[in-house]
Amino acid sequence: QVQLVDSGGGLVQAGDSLRLSCAASTRTFSSYTMGWFRQAPGKERELVAAISRSFGSTYYAESVKGRFTISKDNAKNSVHLQIYSLKPEDTAVYYCAARHGSTVNTEQYDYWGQGTQVTVSS
Predict the structure, then answer these.
(1) 3-state DSSP call for residue 65?
(2) What is the distance, to the nearest Å, from the Cα of residue 84 to the centroid of all Cα atoms in its chain?
(3) Please, what's the b/e burial string for 78-102 (b: 16 or more CB within 10 A of its CB; e: otherwise)?
(4) What is the C-alpha separation between 122 and 106, in angstroms, rounded?
(5) pLDDT in tens, the chain (122 residues)
(6) Which of 86, 71, 107, 70 is CA-nearest to residue 9?
(7) HSE (CB half, 13 Å, CA atoms) of 99?
(8) Residue 83 φ/ψ, nearest 5 degrees
(9) Distances (CA, A) of 33 to 13, 90, 119
(10) CA-CA distance, 95 to 112, in Å (whole number)?
(11) What is the DSSP letter of 55?
């Protein structure tokens, strides 16, 4: 069992940067592939970034490539999502998630954080 706590969201202006964090309570954090999802009002939840448990692979949705960077710190049981050049269309609730296995381009995850709201004003 893994408990995930998301943080770092807020109200920002277009063009700003933001760093989302996720703290995991598990002794085996290094064995999990981690991902960040987002869900905007009226839209389906989508995977925006993922990093494999071995750091060998990352995944980014086309809409965020070049602006989002995912990182994982196994020593601190945490994963971060650095977001640059925020756009109004990035407004959503962002969730971190953990999954067994190494595949990064899948939306099948086993554990979820509670979500953190990001609102980007134009």
Answers:
(1) coil
(2) 14
(3) bbbbbbeebeeebbbbbbbbbbeee
(4) 32
(5) 899 999 999 999 999 999 999 999 999 999 999 999 999 999 999 999 999 988 779 999 999 999 999 999 999 999 999 999 999 999 999 999 999 988 888 899 999 999 999 999 99
(6) 86
(7) 18
(8) -120, 125
(9) 31, 23, 27
(10) 7
(11) S
Helix (H, G, I), strand (E, B) or coil at 88: helix
Report the distance separating Cα 86 and Cα 120, nearest Å: 7
DSSP-derived 3-state class of residue 89: helix
Q: Are 100 and 31 in contact (CB under 8 A)?
A: yes
Token pair of 11 as six digits: 């109200």
The one-letter amino acid code at 94 reads Y
| Total residues belonging to the chain | 122
Distance CA 52, CA 63 (A): 20
Burial 48-75 (b: 16+ CB within 10 A, else e): bbbbbbeeeeebbbeebeebbbbebeee
Return the structure tokens found at 81: 């999502």
- Residue position matching structure tokens 């703290």: 23
Rounded to whole angstroms, the Cα distance separating 97 from 107 reads 10
Residue type, 53: R
